[in-house]
Amino acid sequence: MFVRFYFAVALAAAFSFAATASVLAAPDMGTGSTSPNWAGYAKTGHTYQWVTATWREPSMPVPCVFGTSGPSLAIIRVGFDGFDNATSEQVGTGIECIPAGPGHDASTPMAVKHAGFYQVDPGAGPLGTVFCNPEDASPAKGCEGSFDLKAGDLVTGLAAFDNGTFTFTLFNWRTGERASATGTNAAATRTSAEAVEEAPFGTHVPLTNFGEVTFEAFIAHADNNDADTGDEDHGQRSENQAITMVNGSVRAEPGALHGSHFTVTWKHA
Question: Is the pTM of this model over 0.85?
Answer without folding.
Answer: no
